[in-house]
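Renewal narrative, Specific Aim 1. Our central claim is that a sequence can be written position by position from structural information alone. The example that follows is taken directly from our test logs and has not been curated for this report. It begins with the C-alpha cells describing the chain, in the order in which they were read.
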C-alpha cells in the first residue's frame, strides 16, 4: 500500500481510458504526487507494475470524492507519529481492491499553484499547453489512515498532498512518468507534485 510521496507540482488532465461497465461520463480535477514503485515490496493490488508495459503504476487516495473505492481500514492516531513519520514497526491498514486495474489518461496542464483545477480546469497557463500525457493503471491504494500519510501534518504537508483530503481527488503516480509529463526528470526541482483534471468514459 502506498503512502503519498511529496515532491514540484504541475497541472494535469486525467481521463479514464479503460473504465468498467456502468461508470458514468463526467470530469473531475485533483492533485497528484509521485512515488518510486520500484522501491516497494508489495501493493494492494498484488502487482508492482501495470499490465501494459507502456503504462505507469499509480495509487488512488481512498477518500478521493470521485476516484476512490471503499475506504481502507484503520484510524488516524497522531500519538504514534514521530517527527512526521510512523514508528519503524508500524503496519499499515488493509485496503479493498475494487479500484485495481482502472486506467486513467493523465495530461499535464501547468504548474502547481497557478490555478485551482477544481474550479477553473480549462484555464491552465498557455505556456504549458504542449506538456505531455501518459496512461496510468491503479496498482495500489493511498490510504488517508496510513500513518506515513497522516503523520506528515507534523512537518506541514497539506492534506491534499498526502492523500488526506476528502474534497480533493488524489493520485500517487510512478515517478518514471514525470519525464513524459513535464519534459524533465523527476527530482530536477525540489518539490514535484501535480494538478490533474479527469474525464470518465466507458
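The sequence written for that structure reads:
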Amino acid at each position: 500500500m502506498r503512502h503519498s510521496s511529496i515532491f514540484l507540482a504541475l497541472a494535469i488532465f486525467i481521463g479514464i481510458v479503460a473504465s468498467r461497465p456502468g461508470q458514468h461520463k463526467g470530469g473531475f480535477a485533483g492533485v497528484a504526487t509521485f512515488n518510486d514503485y520500484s522501491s516497494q515490496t508489495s501493493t494492494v493490488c498484488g502487482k508492482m507494475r501495470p499490465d501494459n508495459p507502456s503504462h505507469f503504476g499509480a495509487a488512488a487516495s481512498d477518500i478521493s470524492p470521485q476516484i476512490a473505492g471503499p475506504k481502507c481500514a484503520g484510524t488516524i492516531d497522531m500519538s504514534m507519529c514521530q517527527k512526521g513519520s510512523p514508528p519503524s514497526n508500524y503496519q499499515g491498514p488493509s485496503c479493498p481492491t475494487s479500484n485495481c486495474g482502472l486506467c486513467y489518461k493523465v495530461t499535464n496542464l501547468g504548474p502547481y499553484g497557478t490555478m485551482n483545477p477544481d474550479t477553473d480546469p480549462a484555464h491552465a497557463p498557455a505556456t504549458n499547453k504542449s506538456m505531455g500525457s501518459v496512461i496510468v493503471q491503479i496498482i495500489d491504494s493511498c490510504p488517508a489512515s496510513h500513518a506515513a500519510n497522516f503523520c506528515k501534518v507534523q512537518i506541514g504537508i497539506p492534506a491534499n498532498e498526502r492523500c488526506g483530503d476528502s474534497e480533493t481527488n488524489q493520485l500517487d503516480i510512478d515517478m518514471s512518468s514525470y519525464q513524459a509529463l513535464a519534459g524533465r526528470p523527476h527530482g530536477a526541482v525540489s518539490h514535484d507534485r501535480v494538478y490533474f483534471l479527469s474525464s470518465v468514459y466507458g
